[in-house]
Amino acid sequence: MDRWVRSCYKKKSGYAFAKKAEDIAREYGIDRIARLASNENPEALSPAALKAAEEALRTVNRYPDERVNVLMNALRAHYAHEHFVTGVGMDGVIETVIRTLVDPGEKVAISTPTFSFYALAAMGQGAEVVTVPREADYSVDTKKLIKAAKDAKITVLCSPNNPTGNATGIDDVREILEGIEGVLFLDNAYVEFSETDYLPLMKKHENLILGRTFSKVYSLAGLRIGYAFTPRWLPPWYSRAGTPFTVNSVSMAAAAAALGDTAHAERYIAQVKRWRKRFADEVKYPALPSDANFVMIDVSPHKSDEMVEELARKGVVVRSCRSFTGLEDHYIRVNVGEDWENELFIAGINAV
Questions:
Q1: In this model, does residue 25 exceed pLDDT 70?
Q2: Average pLDDT of the segment spanning 130-139
Q3: 20 and 108 share a domain?
Q4: Where are the alpha helices (DSSP H) in 191-233?
Q5: Residue 219: pLDDT above 90?
Q6: 156 and 91 in one domain?
Q7: Strand partners, 317
Q8: Which of 143, 144, 140, 155 is closest to 106 using CA atoms?
């Protein structure tokens, strides 16, 4: 009965999912759907990752390595960084970091509009959530963020940001790190598609955690594996707070192998950069500059959900941005898919 449900979940809805391609296909009788709503890599996982996953399947009668050594060693070799944590997607890393560091009633500051799960995870830990709106162009006013987050245990910043696509400069991130008293969780889920490298900041700042994921550039969204670069002090405490055996044997094997297949990643990065430009040049509605594998498009005078429905009728699934706190209700988000999907999207939206 709902009287036993925590009040915080009664006051706020959960994560808003995009409309399912299968539902659209059934509703409109369309056989081939362009899936451009979830920021996925349309290319199948690399052959090396597939082989490693198949081999790991033979061992799933046993619990996975709780130390995730296969993946940890691959990460250390690939990035020349020593300290990492892992989780079930970026979501799992975020949730465990908050669980590790935040006591009920402590503050978590979030730069918005952005990915909604940060607030949901903080709320689930009993934190006080403080949202700090971005500027009109969706850039971060560092002084305003520092002032609001001065006494926060964790400050969350997504760069490149979801759903706006823009990246925050390294100097701005450094200013934030030096201005706050707590930890900065910098979500870098889309950083491979940008020209910005935040990793050098780890050498001087003990209050920085860089979150990453294998869901995007490495085509492993279905295996749900995230990781983070951390300072030396965090992993022992993270392990103490974390759920046992969160990363399964198949996921860790596939992810470790995927790191070595740079050609696979580079193909999609090149595809993203080419199509971001075409979206900006050829879509008749304004596309915001993006450093991610998606673009956010202003479809006014249409509303977000209206445009999503219009495109669904044409066999294209995109994401309505109506649910993003602090974002006006006339934006959609579209990720770079296969060539035919992107072409269908351009033709479809230009016909509205």
A1: no
A2: 97
A3: no
A4: none
A5: yes
A6: yes
A7: 35
A8: 155
**pLDDT at position 27 over 90:** no
Residue 99 sits in the same domain as residue 76: yes
**CATH number assigned to the domain comprising residue 341:** 3.90.1150.10
Residue with tokens 């809805």: 13
Structural domain harbouring 15: 2-44+263-350
Distances (CA, A) of 295 to 236, 261, 335: 38, 26, 6
The pLDDT of residue 18 is above 80: no
The answer to whether residues 31 and 79 belong to one domain is no
Q: How confident is the model at residue 123 (pLDDT cuts 50, 70, 90)?
A: very high
- Whole-model pTM? 0.95
Q: Are residues 98 and 242 in the same domain?
A: yes
In this structure, of 27-36, 111-120, 151-160, the range with the lowest mean pLDDT score is: 27-36
Nearest to 92 by CA among 212, 11, 190, 206: 212
Task: Tell me: do 86 and 115 sit in the same domain.
Answer: yes
Span 52-62, average pLDDT = 97
- Which of 214, 234, 260 lies at the terminal end of a domain, its last residue? 260
Q: Are residues 201 and 88 in the same domain?
A: yes
CA distance 47 to 59: 20
Look at the chain and report how many structural domains it folds into.
2
Strand ranges in the chain using DSSP code E only, listed in sequence order: 34-35, 84-87, 107-112, 128-133, 154-158, 183-187, 208-213, 226-229, 294-298, 316-317, 319-320, 331-335
How does pLDDT run across 284-326, given as a tens digit for each residue?
A: 999 999 999 999 999 999 999 999 999 999 999 999 999 999 9
Residue type, 261: D
For residue 23, the SS3 value is helix
What pLDDT sits at residue 288? 97
- Rounded Cα distance between 263 and 224, Å, is 22
For residue 200, give the DSSP letter: G
Buried b (16+ CB within 10 A) or exposed e, 88-106: bbbbbbbbbbbebbbeeeb
- 214 with 139, same domain? yes
